[in-house]
Amino acid sequence: MSKPEAAPAAQENLTIAGRSYRSRLLVGSGKYRDLEETRAATEASGAEIITVAIRRVNIGQDPGAPSLLDVVPPSRYTILPNTAGCYTAADAVHTLKLARELLDGRQLVKLEVLGDQRTLFPNMPETLRAAETLIKDGFEVMVYCSDDPIQAKLLEEMGCVAIMPLASLIGSGMGILNPWNLSLILEQAQVPVLVDAGIGTASDAAIAMELGCDGVLMNTAIAGARDPVRMAHAMRLAVEAGRAAYLAGRMPKRFAASPSSPMAGRVPAL
């Protein structure tokens, strides 16, 4: 993972599948009390990419029910359909083909194929199978995966446009449990790497960005807070601060103290 020497304006934008975004925070659209809270928290986050669980959220499947798109309009946000709740490659592929029809041919999608209901850990063989099928069908696949650098590289070589390793279990709020594995993925990646799952509070998001991640995706950390709108704003600031710290380059860690003021030229002691 090479450290940048400067922070040109181009590095401040997140580029995925050839499209540029000012915000490096991606947010989900579930678990809020109502659509109004969804709208307010989304705005406070500053996010431009909003993930939508096609199996759980109405974006037109039910014409008689309120639609998420009424408060998160595609004219303002990039709607990123995901396959939350899918446990097989076939189910995930079917879900995203439905999403493409509902979203007027939208090709950018988030793939996740889960292994079981208790851990929601990714089923990597099924994930690889689904990714291969979707990419051949013209989809631009952002993929939720384990923090295994070998699996991440396979997905990148297959043609995924972004790799999204988990920090810890979905909805757990446990933060980044294995920063070493994330660092290994970052060192080899030629596409954006975004932490997906496990973020609990603003410091977790900042740490992910300080490690060099290109972005962070979260839902429960915001929607599950006592004040989701305030937390959304906190996450926005954390991602921005973490990115700035990464670009600035932290001071080296030392095993001895180093005085803040120079010793040379000091006034002699009495």
Give an account of the 3D structure.
Strands 5-4-3-10-9 form a 5-stranded parallel sheet. The chain has a 3-stranded parallel sheet with strand order 6-7-8, covered by helices on one side. The chain has a two-stranded antiparallel ribbon with strand order 1-2. Mean pLDDT is 90; it is low at 6-10. The longest helix has 21 residues, at 228-248. The chain contains 8 helices and 10 strands. Helix 2 packs across helix 3, helix 3 runs parallel beside helix 4 and helix 4 packs parallel to helix 5 (179-188). It has helices at 35-45, 89-102, 124-136, 149-158, 179-188, 202-211, 220-223, 228-248; strands at 14-16, 19-21, 25-28, 49-53, 78-82, 108-111, 140-145, 162-165, 194-196, 215-218. With 270 residues, the protein is an alpha/beta fold. Strand 7, helix 4 (149-158) and strand 8 form a beta-alpha-beta unit.
Secondary structure: elements and pairs:
Layout: E1 14-16, E2 19-21, E3 25-28, H1 35-45, E4 49-53, E5 78-82, H2 89-102, E6 108-111, H3 124-136, E7 140-145, H4 149-158, E8 162-165, H5 179-188, E9 194-196, H6 202-211, E10 215-218, H7 220-223, H8 228-248
Parallel strand pairs: 3-4, 3-10, 4-5, 6-7, 7-8, 9-10
Antiparallel strand pairs: 1-2
